[in-house]
């Protein structure tokens, strides 16, 4: 739409329409094929001879479209531009019911083919040019995206949750011991009990849960981020027993082996500091430091 002489190449990936997520309309095709057909349709509506090609790349999304020539003479640009506008408006009409709740639609504007995002009026100096914008009010995402993978939570808050959950698992049932044979001696190490994520959440403070709800994945993401202490399998939380972990493969590529060696004992061992029985591994076998004097 930028100019008559424009050509394009597009490699469709994520399933999005003009204003939000793409909604499926038929079940006879795969979601990917249906979306590819939609992207090709956009090219046809815009007046291109659309060609399809499959790229030689290591990806499941390899189908691309190329528009190198137009289906209409330059004199008909105004007519095609009107056709494009109607097509965009028709797509918006179909998706009003399923649009993102963050986007508010003004009925009057919607009927006239305009889309407003709640609280996003254009500045006064842009009002005059608003009519020339193809999709007024369209904002695919915030200018600054908030990181919500629990990585930005305060360290002391994360440490508190980790300690609370670990103590909960250790005290959830009578001591569950694992034998550890070293030098002929039989030692016991409390591995605790496993609990479902729901059971763990029920025992946590409401303020903690409220804070975690603002993060994508919430409690589960935080526990998985702390994989030194926890193992989350099929919705159940376990205390990780490092004796059961597979030793590093000798067949690993040199680069990965080197990186693994460089990360050895660069962090303190949580179990050495907090577990009532200490770490299940001897210092020389544990990938984490048993005391600050071992830190690298």
From TrEMBL:
<dbReference type="GO" id="GO:0008270">
    <property type="term" value="F:zinc ion binding"/>
</dbReference>
<dbReference type="GO" id="GO:0030488">
    <property type="term" value="P:tRNA methylation"/>
</dbReference>
<keyword id="KW-0863">Zinc-finger</keyword>
<keyword id="KW-0963">Cytoplasm</keyword>
<dbReference type="GO" id="GO:0141101">
    <property type="term" value="F:tRNA(Ser) (uridine(44)-2'-O-)-methyltransferase activity"/>
</dbReference>
<protein>
    <recommendedName>
        <fullName>tRNA (uracil-O(2)-)-methyltransferase</fullName>
        <ecNumber>2.1.1.211</ecNumber>
    </recommendedName>
</protein>
<keyword id="KW-0489">Methyltransferase</keyword>
<dbReference type="GO" id="GO:0005737">
    <property type="term" value="C:cytoplasm"/>
</dbReference>
<keyword id="KW-0479">Metal-binding</keyword>
<comment type="function">
    <text>Adenosyl-L-methionine (AdoMet)-dependent tRNA (uracil-O(2)-)-methyltransferase.</text>
</comment>
<keyword id="KW-0862">Zinc</keyword>
<keyword id="KW-0949">S-adenosyl-L-methionine</keyword>
<feature type="zinc finger region" description="C3H1-type">
    <location>
        <begin position="263"/>
        <end position="293"/>
    </location>
</feature>
<dbReference type="InterPro" id="IPR000571">
    <property type="entry name" value="Znf_CCCH"/>
</dbReference>
<dbReference type="InterPro" id="IPR011671">
    <property type="entry name" value="tRNA_uracil_MeTrfase"/>
</dbReference>
<keyword id="KW-0808">Transferase</keyword>
<feature type="domain" description="C3H1-type">
    <location>
        <begin position="263"/>
        <end position="293"/>
    </location>
</feature>
<keyword id="KW-0819">tRNA processing</keyword>
<comment type="similarity">
    <text>Belongs to the TRM44 family.</text>
</comment>
């Amino acid at each position: 739409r930028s100019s008559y002489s424009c050509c394009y190449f597009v490699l469709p990936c994520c399933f999005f329409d003009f204003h939000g997520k793409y909604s499926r309309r038929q079940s006879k095709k795969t979601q990917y094929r249906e979306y590819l057909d939609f992207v090709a349709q956009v090219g046809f509506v815009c007046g291109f001879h659309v060609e399809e090609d499959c790229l030689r790349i290591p990806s499941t999304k390899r189908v691309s479209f190329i528009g190198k020539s137009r289906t209409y003479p330059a004199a008909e640009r105004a007519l095609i531009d009107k056709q494009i506008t109607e097509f965009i408006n028709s797509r918006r009409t179909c998706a009003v019911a399923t649009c993102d709740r963050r986007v508010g639609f003004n009925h009057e504007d919607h009927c006239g083919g305009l889309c407003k995002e709640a609280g996003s009026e254009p500045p006064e100096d842009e009002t005059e040019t608003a009519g020339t914008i193809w999709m007024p009010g369209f904002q695919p995402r915030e200018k600054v995206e908030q990181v919500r993978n629990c990585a930005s939570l305060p360290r002391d808050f994360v440490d508190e949750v980790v300690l609370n959950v670990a103590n909960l698992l250790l005290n959830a049932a009578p001591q569950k011991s694992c034998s550890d044979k070293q030098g002929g001696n039989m030692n016991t190490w409390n591995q605790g009990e496993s609990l479902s994520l729901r059971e763990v959440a029920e025992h946590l403070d409401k303020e903690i849960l409220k804070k975690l709800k603002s993060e994508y994945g919430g409690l589960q993401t935080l526990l998985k981020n702390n994989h030194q202490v926890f193992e989350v399998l099929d919705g159940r939380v376990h205390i990780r027993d490092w004796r059961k972990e597979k030793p590093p493969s000798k067949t690993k590529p040199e680069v990965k082996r080197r990186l693994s060696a460089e990360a050895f004992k660069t962090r303190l061992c949580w179990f050495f500091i907090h577990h009532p029985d200490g770490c299940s591994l001897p210092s020389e076998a544990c990938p984490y430091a048993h005391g600050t004097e071992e830190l690298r």
